[in-house]
Amino acid sequence: MSTYLLAHDLGTSGNKATLYDTQGNLRASTLYAYDTFYPRPGFVEQDPHDWWKAVCQSTRALLEQSGVAPGEIAAVSFSGQMMGCLLVDQEGEPLRRSIIWADTRSGEQEERMIRLIGAERGYAITGHRLSASYSAAKLLWIRDHEPELYARAYKMLNAKDFIVAKLTGRYWTDYSDASGTNLLDLRAGVWSEEILKALSIPRDLLPELHASAEIAGSVLPKAAAETGLLAGTPVVLGGGDGSCACVGAGVVREGKTYHTLGSSSWISTASRQPISDPSMRTFNWVHLDPTLYTPCGTMQAAGVSFQWFRDTLCGEEIRIAGERGESAYRQIDEAIRRTEPGAGGLLYLPYLLGERSPRWNRNARGAFLGLHAGTKKAEMARSVLEGVGYNLKVILDIFDARTPIDEITVIGGGAKGKIWLQILADIWQKPLCVPRFREEATSLGAAVCAGVGTGVFPSYEEAVRLNPPEERVLPRAEYAERYRALYRLFNQAYDQLCCVYDGLAELAL
């Protein structure tokens, strides 16, 4: 009997493959890392062949590690990084490296989209700003700069859709991933003819739209030979990583809220209707459950900021950690623990990759403000974590003003860091709930999707049972006023630096 669900989470740093039984128990997991390429400032790409290699090798490793036979896999499904642009030919072969979510090269194309469609109209149709962050602007950049390649393109795909095509031969996408393209009519659930016409993008270039839990097909013999799966194994389409994370966190009912603390970071909720922000600071995905939406705000460089700090300024900690066989983050956390909340008045602006929500400023850059001769490295480290917390609070405040938020579930790799969780709770003055599956929550969402698609699970509500809360982090009221004051200064600092950011962008150094 087929009793296991296989989920692949194609993230930014690698593919996390997980195997769950139908009771929601994690049987095994493995991670296969792949490279990200930065050919020029603002250019961020990945090789889709690396994605396929990651899926093949991690699937084989998972089956070997767990002792589960291929015939015991009830279905395979996917979570994938969103907002990318991969062009493939009629054989499904990539025509170039994929332009991924973090890429911001398409500023000129963004401006053209706004002229042709209108900023407010684009937001009304798609639930998102018209932005260089999304697939449409990246597609236009390829058309402008690589016209011969564009002319050979058969389909534009996102990461999980490419893998589904490799497994099944079908070019499908789901509503959640489609909602990150700037091309979907969010409420109607169809590709927007108005936008396609305005941008002269042929409808045939886009994949078929389907619900996340639909079975796209079964594993083809060639793909079975490469992955180690059994030919004929059902392939459930799955969803974008944001919507899979939402389900994995148990946010499957209206009003529930969660936060993903990873390389990028976001705050999202579940809603029966999209939430429109008058200033267009936040946006809306489609949930894996197509009757729901996930209003969301996403910042670019959360975990990326902490990683940059470690790699750039913590060589000694890395050396000692290597000798001890432990993570350098553990040493950095211990140093932070000995510092006072507020980092001695030091502010960090976390804009290493420009910024999406809430700033929508591709020229924004990182900064430390308040350095003095007595500033310690540990205070700088704390300020990095606090700066991410301040930036996320801007997003949280937008949703909190509409419907007061009582509690926030936190998932992602950063949820392992108790110091960071306490900092977030203190800045937001909200209790945080940490579930059983933190790093695996996104893949759990994909596994639940596989279970719903094959009838193993009756509904997405099953996620609440499968990922129960294990601990709570309570805010400390004694630091509330200090953080309120620093939060005001954080926002003021960003506003005052905008002209500097623009000036630096004009220098193009």
UniProtKB/TrEMBL annotation:
Highest taxon of source: Bacteria
Ranges where the Carbohydrate kinase FGGY N-terminal domain occurs: 4-248
Residue ranges constituting the Carbohydrate kinase FGGY C-terminal domain according to the UniProt record: 259-452
SUPFAM superfamilies to which the protein is assigned, alphabetical: Actin-like ATPase domain
GO molecular function: ATP binding; D-xylulokinase activity
Database matches in PROSITE patterns: FGGY_KINASES_1 (PS00933), FGGY_KINASES_2 (PS00445)
Pfam families for the chain: FGGY_C, FGGY_N
CDD domains named in the record: ASKHA_NBD_FGGY_CvXK-like (cd07805)
Gene3D superfamilies attached to this UniProt entry: 3.30.420.40
Enzyme class name: transferase
Sequence similarity: Belongs to the FGGY kinase family.
Protein name, as recorded: Xylulose kinase
Organism: Candidatus Caccousia avicola
